[in-house]
Amino acid sequence: MGLWAWIKRIVSDKRKKDDKPKKLKGKKQINSMQGATKIQALMEADALAKQSSTALDRIHFWSKIQVELRTRRLQMVKESRLKQKKFQNQLKMESKFHELEAEWCSGPESMNVIVSRI
């Protein structure tokens, strides 16, 4: 009898309606088994527990990786926006300096007045 058949028998056994919890019923079932069948059922249950534990560990690990990737992408977007803003500000400043240089070369204003505009 495999583990699933054993579980199915415990779950689907609705003829016996007693007040004992399912955990106790499961323990009684295991205790009533003989030798090799009992060992096999325990080994299958242990293997199933290990498999589910491993699966949960891997899912947790994968979710951690996804969170790290998401934060890295957000950081890269922020850095890119910051670089773009700095570049635009630099272009604006260069444009202003170029305009002031053109005014200074052609106008009668003093250097102090033009520097004060900056």
Summarize, please.
The chain has 118 residues and is mainly alpha-helical. The protein has helices spanning 3-12, 22-32, 35-106, 111-117.
Quick tags:
118 residues; mainly alpha
What can you see in these coordinates?
The protein has 118 residues and is mainly alpha-helical. The chain has one domain. It has 4 helices and no strands. α1 crosses α2. The protein is rod-shaped. It starts with a helix and ends with a helix. 0% of the residues are buried. The model has no long low-confidence stretch (mean pLDDT 77).
Mean pLDDT: 77
Task: Give the helix level as a range of percent.
Answer: over 70%
* N-to-C SSE string, H for helix and E for strand: HHHH
SS-based structural class? mainly alpha
| Main sheet summary | none
Q: Indicate the radius of gyration in whole angstroms.
A: 38 Å
Q: What is the number of E strands? A: 0
What separation lies between the terminal Cα atoms? 88 Å
Low-confidence stretches: none
Give the tally of structural domains: 1
